[in-house]
Amino acid sequence: MSKQLPGVIDTNPNSNMPKNKFFELELLRVTAIFFVFYDHSTPYLGWDARYDSFIKEPGAIGLGMFFALSGFLLQRSRSIQGDDFNSVSFLKKRLTRIFPLYWIALTLFVIRFHYFSVSGHSSSFDPLAPTFLAHFLGLQLFLIPLISEIFTLWYIGALVPYYILFCLTTKFKFPKYLSFNLMLLISCFILKLILQRWGIKLIDVRLFLHYQTFLLGTVVAYLDPELVWLKNKSLVLTSILGFAAIFYAPIIGNDNINIGNRITLTWASIGYYGYSLIWTFFLVSLIFVVAPFFSKFPVIIRFLSQNSYAMYLFHRPIYATFYALVISLISASTHLRTLLFPVATLVMIGLCYYLTRLDSQVLSKKFTKWADRIFYSS
Q1: Does residue 361 carry a pLDDT above 60?
Q2: Distance in angstroms (rounded) separating the CA atoms of residues 226 and 22
Q3: Is 108 helix (H, G, I), strand (E, B) or coil?
Q4: Sign of the C-alpha dihedral, residues 237, 238, 244, 245?
Q5: Are 63 and 36 in contact (CB under 8 A)?
Q6: Region of poorest pLDDT, from 42-46, 47-51, 163-167, 337-341
Q7: Whole-prediction pTM value?
Q8: Which of 87, 141, 192, 194 has a C-alpha 20 to 30 A away from that of 368?
Q9: What b/e readout covers 168-181, taking b as 16+ CB neighbours within 10 angstroms?
Q10: What does the mean pLDDT of the chain come to?
Q11: Contacts of residue 48, Cβ cutoff 8 Å, sequence gap at least 6
Q12: Which is nearest to 24 in space by CA: 72, 60, 61?
């Protein structure tokens, strides 16, 4: 079976997974990662390429796709294993696949953005020691604003607790699992509002907001594990969700499509999340409509899908280093920076290919042995 990391992104270049099995999900990974690149391109281009009149917050939508995929693939794996599902073993394997490459990326982020000035980025990660430790353990969203956020890497701070909670609650049958998680989610919203009222500013609201997308992914896996219904109804769903996406912004107002203060839960942050959710599932259904066209390029799509986790983790430091090196030698004009972006992207993809191989062939295996040693010695 293919080695997927972390339940979203296929990282094993030598996967034996049958060709075109859930090709749409591979295409969805690729679409999601390029939405993130598009959103993060501004510091490198020297100008804002995002066309807000068409789509706002493309990075959040890309991450929404990843969260939905996470929920779908985890629940599908749980359903396939049935009574043989071992939550402890499952969680150990998932965390083993997440952390090694993530820790390397975390170290590079600190070196590149904290110790070296990079135009277009807020690079202060003070207080550095607790910030690094919180991110190292994947607990950063629980401790903000006591620590600094390291941009991009906050995604792991949401994914890790989602995985842990999934494994702790999968002993329930799915209806009970879903009911329990919905009650927990509502309780977290209420607790957050109470803490805000008392002036206690703690926990990033994105931890709550995106969990709903993750849960919706598990619902899809429970109701339609082979995605037959979604494939058959993709055109209808795309039309309905497309109209909803178009009309949503004027209803809530463009000002509410920005999460703003990530520590305070407001109607604006809920409106922002609603926009991201509608666009996420609109694009999910659209992928199933356009998949036959992209199936003509299976090798390219699969290659990008296999390396998408490394591409997500490392694109910022690689872009920043590439531009710093090139611009130090030649002109820093906006036109040149724009023309260099495709070149920088190809360089980044090539480097991430080797990072993915390093992870699948060396890092994950060593980390697994280390984790097994701790597990069996305890």
Answers
A1: yes
A2: 8
A3: helix
A4: positive
A5: yes
A6: 47-51
A7: 0.91
A8: 141
A9: eebeeebeebbeeb
A10: 88
A11: 42
A12: 72
Task: Enter the tokens of residue 200.
Answer: 């206690």
User: What is the distance between the alpha carbons of residues 185 and 192, in angstroms, rounded to a whole number?
Assistant: 11
Pair of tokens at residue 330: 């030649």
| DSSP secondary structure, 37-54, as one string | HHHT-HHHHSS----TTT
pLDDT (0 to 100) of residue 13: 38
Residue bearing tokens 């591409």: 311
378 burial class (0-12, 13-18, 19+ CB within 10 angstroms)? exposed
Residue pLDDT, tens place only, 230-265: 999 999 999 999 999 888 888 887 777 888 788 999
Q: Say which residue the tokens 């872009």 belong to.
A: 319
* Three-state secondary structure call for residue 122: coil
Taking CA atoms, 50 is separated from 39, 57, 138, 275, 361, in Å, by 7, 9, 30, 16, 37
Phi, psi of 10 (to 5 degrees): -75, 120
Read off the pLDDT of residues 130-181 as tens digits, 9 standing for 90 and up: 999 999 999 999 998 999 999 999 999 999 999 999 999 988 999 999 999 9
Q: Which residue has the tokens 């036109």?
A: 335
Token pair listed for 56 = 């706002």
**DSSP string across 285-308:** HHHHHHHHHHTT-HHHHHHHHHTH
CA distance linking residue 361 with residue 365, whole number of Å: 7
> How far is the C-alpha of 157 from the C-alpha of 3, rounded, in Å?
21
d(CA 18, CA 298): 12
